[in-house]
């Protein structure tokens, strides 16, 4: 078992953001977490990475409860599960390759980190990740000079520098236009398939989850109300997840990613040229 989440709960005062979530991951997977705003998706992901303290429950990885980890063991866990955020969280004025190498800081001694010392191997690894993501041509630009889709790919490269086992992506495409959203989702799918990483990705929209994820977890008001292969996610179930009435249609949760020509997006990714984002 890669990951076993048992009865994970988070309360904020009287409100329960995540209510006794149980999730089993027995092999590397690409998992989409869907639900309307406030359903508890971010809180769930942040508890896994320990950015938010859980109120109760357990998160078992390799026989240990990550909720009990402290100090070096907690830092090691955070290296194992990289986070990707909606707003990219890069250092805007630093160049792209340095931003990527920051993903290694956890692995260096405090002294080396303080002097910003990166070895040649770090630089090579960072450039390799950028190349794989089609943006090596931007390595020396300041991060703030890149489009949103390019910045999110830099954030993915930074995550890969940690050599993680899990990538937790919290609404990674919510700030992007459909073209850039597709390029970023393609990148996440590839790192799942090629590197065997487990990717858990919060998504607002059902069509994106269906298209990219093998498994979908649907949350409503803190509870997991669906967990299964995306093809079993019926329209009736989608209505239940989104709490919509009979007028519900999938189009209302669509980012229209599917409407794009995939070849155009891939060509752009490969050339490092991206639509405005
Ligand atoms: N720090 C906090 N303090 C108080 N309440 C919070 C806090 N963080 C989240 N909540 C509440 O917990 C619930 C779940 O929030 P969460 O952000 O996890 O939902 P979400 O599904 O990720 O929504 P969104 O898609 O809008 O980010 C919401 O009712 C929210 O208001």
3D structure, described in words:
This protein is an alpha/beta fold and 277 residues long. It has a single domain, classed as Rossmann fold (3-Layer(aba) Sandwich), CATH 3.40.50.300. It has a six-stranded mixed β-sheet with strand order 6-7-8-3-9-10, sandwiched between helices. It has a four-stranded antiparallel β-sheet with strand order 2-1-4-5, with helices on one face. β1 and β2 form a beta hairpin. The longest helix is centred in the last third of the chain and has 18 residues. The C terminus is likely disordered. Adenosine-5'-triphosphate binds next to β2 and α1. InterPro entries: AAA+_ATPase, ABC_transporter-like_ATP-bd, ABC_transporter-like_CS, ABC_transpr_PhnC, MetN_ABC_transporter-like, P-loop_NTPase.
Blueprint (SSEs and pairs):
Layout: E1 3-12, E2 15-25, E3 30-34, H1 41-48, E4 56-61, E5 64-65, H2 71-80, E6 81-85, H3 96-101, H4 110-114, H5 120-132, H6 148-161, E7 166-170, H7 178-195, E8 198-203, H8 206-212, E9 215-220, E10 223-229, H9 235-242, H10 262-271
Parallel strand pairs: 3-8, 3-9, 6-7, 7-8
Antiparallel strand pairs: 1-2, 1-4, 4-5, 9-10
Helix pairs in contact: 5-6, 6-7, 7-10
Pfam families: ABC_tran
GO molecular function: ABC-type phosphonate transporter activity; ATP binding; ATP hydrolysis activity
Protein name: Phosphonate transport system ATP-binding protein
């Amino acid at each position: 078992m890669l990951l076993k989440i048992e009865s994970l709960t988070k309360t904020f005062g009287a409100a329960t953001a995540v209510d006794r979530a149980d999730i089993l991951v027995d092999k590397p997977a690409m998992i989409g977490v869907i639900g309307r705003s406030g359903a508890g998706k971010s809180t769930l992901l942040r508890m896994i990475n320990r950015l938010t303290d859980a109120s109760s429950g357990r998160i078992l990885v390799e026989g240990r409860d990550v909720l009990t980890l402290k100090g070096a063991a907690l830092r090691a866990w955070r290296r194992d599960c990289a986070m990707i955020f909606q707003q990219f969280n890069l250092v805007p004025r630093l160049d792209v390759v340095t931003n990527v190498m920051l993903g290694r800081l956890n692995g260096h001694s405090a002294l080396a980190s303080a002097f910003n010392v990166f070895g040649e191997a770090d630089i090579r690894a960072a450039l390799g990740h950028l190349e794989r993501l089609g943006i090596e041509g931007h390595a020396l630009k300041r991060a703030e000079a890149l489009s949103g889709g390019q910045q999110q790919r830099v954030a993915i490269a930074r995550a890969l520098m940690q050599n993680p086992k899990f990538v937790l992506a919290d609404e990674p495409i919510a700030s992007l236009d459909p073209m850039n959203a597709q390029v970023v989702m393609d990148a996440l799918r590839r790192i799942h398939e090629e590197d065997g990483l487990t990717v858990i990705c919060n998504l607002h929209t059902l069509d994106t989850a269906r298209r990219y994820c093998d498994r979908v977890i649907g949350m409503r008001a803190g509870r997991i109300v669906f967990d299964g292969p995306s093809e079993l996610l019926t329209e009736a179930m989608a209505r239940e997840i989104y709490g919509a009435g009979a007028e519900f249609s999938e189009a209302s949760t669509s980012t229209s990613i599917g409407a794009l020509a995939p070849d155009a997006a891939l060509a752009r990714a490969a050339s490092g040229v991206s639509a405005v984002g």
